[in-house]
Amino acid sequence: MNEKPTWPADEPWYQFTPRNLGTGYLTLAAAGLLLVWSGVELTRGGLGTGQTVLFAIIAVCGLVMLFQSAFGLKKLLRRRNQQG
Q1: Comparing C-alpha atoms, which of 82, 29, 41, 38 is closest to residue 60?
Q2: Fewer beta carbons below 10 Å: N end or C end of the chain?
Q3: Which residue from 73, 57, 59 is spatially nearest to 24, judged by alpha carbons?
């Protein structure tokens, strides 16, 4: 049981597969938090151009993080079910 988990060589560098469920769900929650925060700031209004661009970038990063963590969790759960 002292074996370190190795990452499969067929996974691309940009794909996030968490090592455990806690990390996966924490990443999913952080992505949701980024999306909510940027959405609230953008819809509240009164932002300058620089702030609008910043929160738009944060929203895009949150969206990418959401998809990465959701697909990574799906892959992790599929691997765990195959192992028994």
Answers
A1: 38
A2: N
A3: 73
